Amino acid sequence: MGEHLKTIHQLEHYRSQSFISLEAQYEAFKRMFGCCVHEGNIETINDFIRFDSEPFILSNSNMKVLQFLVEQEWYFKQNLKECLAVLYLVIGHCHYFNINLEQAKKYYRIASNYALQYENYSLLSLAMNNYNASQIDKLPDDVFWDISKIPAIFLKLGTANDEQYLIVRFIAHIEISLKLDKVQYAENIFSKYFTDYEFKKDSRVDLQVRVLRGKIHFQKGEYELAIEILHEVLVICMEMNFNKDLVQVCYNLITKSYKMLNEESLSRKMEQYQARFQRRLETDKRYIEKYIKTFNDKEHEGDEYFTAPLPRFKLDGECLLSDIANDGYTLVLVDCKVRANGKDALNDIIYLINDKMMLEMKEFIIASTRIDNSTIGYIIRLQEQFTDTLCAKVFHKIREHYPKNDSVLEAIYFAAVNNKENGLHSYEKCLDMAYAYIYYELYK
């Protein structure tokens, strides 16, 4: 009892803090997560994972919390089976908000099974609602319309405290009603449940309801009103760098609205913005898959071409990159992108890069590893500037073998992060910054 009260006080303190950055909040989240799991109260763990993970899920950095939660899966299966439903639910959220709907659907289905097994009906309602949302374009519309009513029924089997979440379950039902051209019916449901309900301004549900209102105006042919509402939401989401799914919907409906108003120049401009955003989504999806695969995929762990398997490399990194003595250490990532016809050549390219790296800076390389199919990691005892210079020489030599415009090697993405120069005291933080640099190269 005393330990539970201690955890409650720690949670109250965590939730009352104003963090200087999302990164600082995430570090505190992980510590608090450990405290909750150690104490072992099922209700506390479920609530913490479900609600306190939201800031990271909705942000563009949600791959961090996604990887963190995937790492907890084995322990939960062994010790916290009653928390598996919410764990899989939030993993599904991470995929959903990165528009990776197939993976989202997979985890929502698993979450539904565990929620039903442990008779957590409010969680079952939420998992089913999101499962339905993730396959809105997969099922026949009339079938989906009937199915979309079910989550609210399960929610009514939950506790009195779940009542505040009831109206959110109608969003998918209203959306499919609009798709079936049941506009008046959808508007009536919206007016009954949403018009007078106050949501926290610019919260996820507030923005979601505003988009729903924009959809209703669009469906009624009130295109100027639809553009006005959806543009407000689009600006908020872009400025706050979150809710990618809503950004995608806003772009799509604003573009269509301009077309219906015969504003061709504005419609074309919106199409260009939307295409750019879509390319970024595809890139994010690729790197999220890479990030998670790094943890789960053991295929390249024993690649003897490198000095250390990945687990040993991580241990070396955790030790060395926490040391900022002298010039510190530099974590290097080299990521190769081959053309569609070049997958069979990828191993040869990876090994050639490693050969050239070892020839150029063997005396400075402390450890090397195959992080995944297309990525090499190095820990180097050099400052960033010297590392950049030597790596540039290596990549020039690689291009002699694989010319940029006349080979299967489409691109080499490279990042070097020195722990001392950047004030980073852990392998994880250096790795995050290295991936951020690679993102920049992809997006610029």
Give the SSE map:
Elements: H1 2-16, H2 22-39, H3 42-52, H4 54-57, H5 62-79, H6 84-96, H7 101-117, H8 121-134, H9 141-147, H10 150-155, H11 170-179, H12 183-193, H13 204-219, H14 223-240, H15 244-260, H16 264-296, H17 310-320, E1 330-338, H18 346-361, E2 365-372, E3 375-380, H19 384-401, E4 409-418, H20 427-443
Antiparallel strand pairs: 1-3, 1-4, 2-3
Number of strands: 4
Approximately what portion of the residues adopt beta-strand conformation? 5-15%
Instruction: Calculate the terminal CA-CA distance, rounded to whole Å.
Output: 54 Å
Helix amount = 55-70%
What does this structure look like?
Helix content is 65%, strand content 7%. The protein is globular and about 70 Å long. It is an alpha+beta fold and 444 residues long. Among the domains are: 1-135; 310-443, Alpha-Beta Plaits, CATH 3.30.70. The model is unreliable at 151-165 (pLDDT under 50). A 4-stranded antiparallel beta sheet has the order 2-3-1-4, sandwiched between helices. It contains 20 helices and 4 strands.
Short description:
With 444 residues, this protein is an alpha+beta fold.
